[in-house]
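User: My instructor asked us to take a sequence, write out its structure as tokens, and then describe one feature of it. I'm not sure where to start. Here is the sequence I was given:
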Amino acid sequence: MIKIDEYGVRWKDEAYPVMFNLIAKNMPEIKMHVESYCSSRDFREIKSDYVFQSKPDMRKMYPNPIFANYESSTGSVYSVSYSPFHRYLLESFIGK
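Assistant: Let's start with the prediction itself. The structure tokens for your sequence are:
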């Protein structure tokens, strides 16, 4: 478990996978939001379902991967196909 913080709550082991899959820059804000929510309801331990019950900003929980990982096109895109060899590689057909 994570040590008791300023809100007086502990994170249970089951909540770790939810938090560890966040983008690092968003983690402190979401962590503080969840801890504040649990503290205001007198929860002493934070479970994974409390993370979602606290209703954090979903754009920070699950940012759009297309805007985060791919470069924009310089022309009109007529076709897009994903690589069968790598899940983040795609090919686009750009007409002139």
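For the description part of your assignment, you could build on this observation: The chain has one domain: 10-94. Try explaining in your own words what that tells you about the chain.
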